[in-house]
């Protein structure tokens, strides 16, 4: 067993990392699917979307071949509607709520239709919003991820000038650096960032990290308001013996490296164990398999009923040949000559429910051992607690504490997204950005100022 790169041919890498959710092949295919929609009066699909996209409306616009109108409807609610159409767990959101499920029929392919019109808009650079005249107000945003970009676009539409400070060399946050490459490519993420900023009034300063290159106090002096959207990203440690052996990787780092390099350059083991069962764990496991690992096993301390990932995501891992061991928790990692050779696991049983409502895993006293040469830790992410405390923000278990969705304990400073909620879906971060923008506009212009989130389009829809 060994950890090495360049396991596959160029053609095999290309096949393994091709689009897992391909678009409609022809306009007619999109029209046929759009015309399946029942255009419900009180649509459950719209209610299940965190950004409240008017799903029946945008599908009706596709059915009537009004693609600009359809894209405008989507982007009015979710400026990252194109990216979300690729990465959203729609099976538990809009498509999961589709009334066709009650009829035991295939739900409308909402995400695929959403992708159809939004990608047309991006490909053709349709400018669907007209920015209001400049108000002279300036807002600084920390983080060019979904929450930061959503907040920036909403503010820019209102005539507010925005500067985003981003610690990485590219924008997009989790979309660019933390999601499986077969779901969304870095190239698409870059195109989406460019499309969002093309409205004008948004300047992104890259390689600028909070606490190193810029401070909250400095931003408070130089801007009329500040919005924190720096996310989460610290991998939760296992706190077991052998965790620092060669061959033990954080899932976040593993996916980050994969997103930033040619697939052939990413080293992977023959036999890989992935600890966890969230979306990041699934992404790490499936990508390890697609990089050429012969054996990938997901180890989870609870049962399938308690897993944080969706059944759809689990099925992707199963179809890729990944194995799953339920009711198992890592106890020790053993090695030879400083390199991983075995993963010792406790056999678990379920006890009483914990704070999350899920039954707590309890050690049974039995153990088993897996022969492995690589262990990928995906047991969750921790907030940037030190960063939050060093800047004197009230915190909730290390996350930025807010009231009224976006208000921090500091005058003129707002926050949203993963740095507040600890890590949810991309679409939740987009909505948090909208909420933050609404709070900032209210702060800058007064109680009676109404945020116009549905600007008049620059075309006839």
Automatic annotation (TrEMBL):
Pfam families reported for this sequence: Fer4_20, Pyr_redox_2
Q: Which domain of life is it from?
A: Bacteria
Q: Where is the FAD/NAD(P)-binding domain?
A: 138-433
The UniProt GO MF terms for this protein read: iron-sulfur cluster binding; oxidoreductase activity
User: Where does the Dihydroprymidine dehydrogenase domain start and stop, copy by copy?
Assistant: 15-125
Sorted alphabetically, which InterPro entries does this protein's record hold? DPD_II, FAD/NAD-bd_sf, FAD/NAD-binding_dom, Helical_ferredxn
Q: Which SUPFAM superfamilies match?
A: alpha-helical ferredoxin (SSF46548), Nucleotide-binding domain (SSF51971)
Name by which UniProt lists this protein: NAD(P)-dependent oxidoreductase
């Amino acid at each position: 067993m060994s950890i090495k790169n360049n396991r596959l041919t160029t053609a095999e890498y290309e096949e393994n990392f091709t689009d897992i959710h391909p678009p409609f092949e022809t306009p007619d295919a999109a029209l046929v699917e759009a015309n399946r929609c029942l255009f419900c009066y009180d649509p459950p699909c719209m209610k299940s979307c965190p950004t409240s996209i008017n799903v029946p409306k945008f599908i009706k616009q596709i059915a009537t071949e009004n693609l600009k109108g359809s894209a405008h409807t989507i982007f009015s609610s979710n400026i990252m509607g194109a990216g979300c159409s690729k990465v959203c767990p729609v099976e538990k959101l809009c498509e999961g709520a589709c009334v066709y499920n009650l009829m035991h029929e295939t739900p409308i392919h909402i995400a695929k239709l959403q992708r159809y019109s939004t990608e047309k808009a991006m490909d053709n650079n349709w400018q669907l919003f007209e920015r209001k005249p400049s108000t002279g107000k300036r807002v600084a945003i920390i983080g060019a991820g979904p929450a930061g970009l959503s907040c920036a676009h909403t503010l820019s539409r209102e005539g507010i000038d925005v500067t985003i400070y981003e610690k990485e060399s590219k924008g997009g946050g989790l979309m660019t650096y933390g999601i499986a490459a077969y779901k969304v490519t870095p190239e698409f993420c870059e195109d989406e960032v460019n499309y969002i900023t093309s409205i004008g009034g948004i300047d992104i300063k890259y390689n600028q990290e909070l606490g190193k290159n810029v401070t909250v106090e400095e931003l408070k002096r130089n801007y009329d308001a500040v919005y924190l959207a720096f996310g989460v990203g610290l991998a939760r440690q296992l706190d077991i013996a052998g965790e620092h052996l060669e061959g033990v990787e954080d899932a976040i780092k593993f996916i980050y490296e994969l997103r930033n390099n040619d697939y052939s350059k990413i080293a992977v083991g023959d036999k890989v164990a992935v600890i966890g069962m969230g979306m990041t764990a699934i992404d790490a496991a499936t990508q390890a398999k697609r990089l050429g690992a012969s054996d990938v096993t997901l180890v989870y301390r609870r049962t399938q009923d308690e897993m944080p990932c969706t059944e759809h995501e689990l099925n992707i891992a199963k179809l890729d040949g990944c194995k799953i061991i339920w009711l198992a928790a890592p106890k020790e990692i053993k090695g030879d000559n400083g390199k991983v050779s075995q993963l010792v696991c406790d056999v678990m049983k379920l006890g009483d429910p914990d704070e999350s409502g899920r039954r707590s895993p309890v050690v049974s006293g039995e153990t088993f051992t897996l022969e492995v040469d690589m262990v990928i830790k995906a047991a969750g992410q921790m907030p940037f607690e030190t960063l939050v405390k060093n800047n004197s923000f009230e915190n909730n278990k290390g996350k930025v504490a807010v009231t009224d969705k976006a208000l921090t304990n500091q005058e003129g400073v707002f926050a949203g997204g993963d740095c507040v909620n600890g890590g949810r879906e991309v679409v939740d971060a987009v909505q948090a950005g909208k909420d933050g923008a609404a709070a900032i506009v209210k702060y800058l212009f007064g109680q009676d100022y109404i945020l116009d989130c549905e600007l008049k389009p620059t075309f006839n829809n």
